[in-house]
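#lab-general

N.A. 3:47 PM
ok so I finally got the sequence cleaned up, no stray characters, all 224 residues accounted for. can someone with queue access submit it? mine expired

B.Y. 3:52 PM
send it over

N.A. 3:53 PM
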Amino acid sequence: MNNPMNIKAVLFDLDGTLLDTARDLGGAANRLLARDNQPLLSDDVIYQTASQGSLALIKAGYGVELTTEHYTRLRREFLENYTAHINEHTALFDGVNHLLDTLDKHNIVWGIVTNKPTLYTTQLLAHYPRLSNCAIVICGDTLDVAKPSPAPLLLAAQKINVSPVQIMYVGDARTDIEASKAANMKSVAANYGYIPANDPAQTWNSDHIIDRSSDLCHILAIAE
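B.Y. 4:20 PM
back already:
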């Protein structure tokens, strides 16, 4: 069967969907915590928080009682630390290469729409030529708004010249599903990503849920 859903493009979130970046993100937080003689974040906390960004990891480690000025300084230090160690433990999730090869085989355009700032996205993708060769990359600071706004997804659709109704968006956060629904795209929750224990993917009302990247081929009904 050849893509009976008539999906012409698939857009992906980056962290927690294509790349497993949690250990490097968590490492940036834990190096600051160790410096400040604070308890380190556990792997469970890191993996449940990573998709929510740097500030969420900082708050998970330092609590919510710090001043805005202190959080701002810690976030700057976090990002400096992350940049210095951005690809020490990061890797493609299992099956991603095969999935992308399959999409290419069936002439389905694919790209990346992430809330990660351009600076760090560009630095990270330099290590992954397979990803950097995608049709479009939209970052968290490409526009004045980021997900859950649908605007970045709609910009990607415009750039690749595919109607939103013929696009599937895959992400591992509730905000990804909210953005894709608002953009009138098919939504897929990547349940293998960084899912908070108190916000399971089954509650996001996505069109589909996948437990591994290869499941997307079955949803699209395209031969692997």
